[in-house]
Amino acid sequence: MSEALNILGLKKSFGPAEVIRGVDLTVARGEVHAVIGPNGAGKSTFFNLVSGAFAPSAGQVSLHGRRIDGLAPEKIQQRGLARSFQVSNVFGNLSVFENLRCACFKQSGAGYAFWRPAGSVKRANRRAEEVLEMIGLRALRDSPAGALPYASQRALEIGMTIAGDADVVLLDEPTAGMSNTETTQAVSLIRRIAEGRTLMIVEHDMGVVFELADRISVLVYGEIIATGTPDAIRNDPRVKEAYLGEEAA
Amino acid sequence: MNESLSWWRPVAPWAISALVLVTLPLVVAGNGTFSIINVVAINIVFALSYNMLLGQGGMLSFGHAVFFGLGAYGAIHAMNLIGEAGYDGHGFWAFFPVYLLPLVGFACGALAALVVGWPFCRRAGTAFAMITLGLGELVAAGSQMFPTVFGGEAGVFSNRMVGPVWFGLELAQPADVYWFMAFWTLVAVFAMWAFTRTPLGRMSNAVRDNADRLQFIGYPPRNLRFLVFIAAGGFAGLGGGMAAVNYEIVTPESLGLLTSGLALLMAAVGGLAVFYGPMVGAILVTVMNSLLSDYTDASILYVGLVFLAVVMFAPGGLGGGIEQVRLAWRRGDLGAHLPGWLGGALAVLLIALGLVSTIELVYQISHGRDKLARLLGLEPDPASPLVWLGIITLFAAGYGVARVSGRYREARA
Ligand SMILES: Nc1ncnc2c1ncn2[C@@H]1O[C@H](COP(=O)(O)OP(=O)(O)OP(=O)(O)O)[C@@H](O)[C@H]1O
Ligand SMILES: [Mg+2]
Question: How far is the CA of A105 from the centre of ligand 2 (A)?
């Protein structure tokens, strides 16, 4: 099996509105797969289905060949899939370090422990420091996460996602709202994350997408209208019409 | 900077607390004072256990007294068993000293939480508040149906002068009970503080802040809430066990909404976001309750006013205020902030004085003069316009100081 994710006939309706209308997609192990599409196309909903935030109305999702559709998010996380959120979703009153450490407890199976200090969970502490360094927030280690500047909070969001050592990572618009320099930093962070992992990333910044992605899927109105290499997507007439053309207009 | 002092920082609060507990009996005397101190000790444990739920875990409970009360009932029944076992000197209870009854309370409280808690912990927020409110009412009402267990209206009596005696420490007078209280308060406070530093303690803060995200780092919020609920129930029960020994009687009131409300009141007045906040709240509210009721009929009204004042003017509670001052001091800009804060405090004080005077005068008109006014050596005449003019001056001065100090604070913010 060289497929990390295998998605078949995935559908999701909210009441009468069908937001995801039959998505088939295969993500190879180690691949960086970008999902692009206009606003409201259903990209975040698609991530929510894969990560277990919502149960699909129909279809299958397999992670490394095992079905995960309909499982609770924590079960899917334990199988090695982690995701970040489009809107930062951190523990606002906890420090940056504490946010990361909480995200590391699962690996040590320590989250329920009440008989030992958190500082004694060596592996979680080591990993949290490591990720702290990686996302460049060492200076803000003890600040409450809720008080961070926007870009730092985005970095923490990514840090919490990868802290648990998931091998399949979904990032929902990691660079949205960032300045150019911040985006450059985020891209190099994402590139490091991609080493040894499978990455699926929703992104509006085409520069970022074409720089990072091995393959791109274009999601329009709940359906994938094209999947291919960046070059193939760039030259695909349907994509131009449905999405890139709109962007140029 | 103060490298040599760094080891002292974490130890200081405990060393100082222990010192205070040891010296307290040297400076105060009289069983009346010790009675109040003993109730303070019980309430410190109770309020802190409540804050494990609300401040740490984000669960607003209106039924926390159930676990306090069941712990108390468990302990008082155990006390009776100790008493009975004392006649023939056989069996487990014959060797169980009364000093350890808070452990029985802990077990009962935790067990009760374990039995009922799972369905409660699915959601926090309003659903949790409503369900716990229902539980409190249900248990309080249900207790009337089992008079052999709960003793009906009158409650269950016992006698703490039973069982084995250790170190010659008989629990006869409130002053003797003091050592028992000091010991268990220290143990419980330390255990609850240590809990905040464990992975589960940290994860309970994470549930409070953002339960949805927690699932995506591998933990279902419900499991975490449930564990915190059991721990909080246990410590409430421990407080109940202390109360059983202190009063030698447990009534169904201890299970009811008023007792639950007291926990919320103490925790909120003291501050939910600071670990020691509920302790400050417990001390203030208990002392106010005990002292004021001797001097004025309006004591409950005053406790309510303090609650209102804190919620409106210091949402972080007294503990939050203390933390603010401490942080400013460590940053070194206390001097710049202090006048604004003192001004605010003065304004609250002036307005409070105005309110107290008004309330006392109104009570005087309707009930006759009570002791508070006499205690202060005042003989105000509610019919005299001068008195009312004075009160209006108090309010006006308070308002003025509030405006000025508010502007000062804004300028510094
Ligand atoms: N929980 C929900 N209930 C009802 N409708 C929803 C829900 N979540 C999403 N939708 C709808 O589904 C559609 C797709 O939303 P989604 O957030 O997935 O789009 P998106 O592609 O991520 O857009 P964007 O680029 O703006 O992030 C939108 O029309 C949205 O209103
Ligand atoms: Mg989206």
Answer: 28
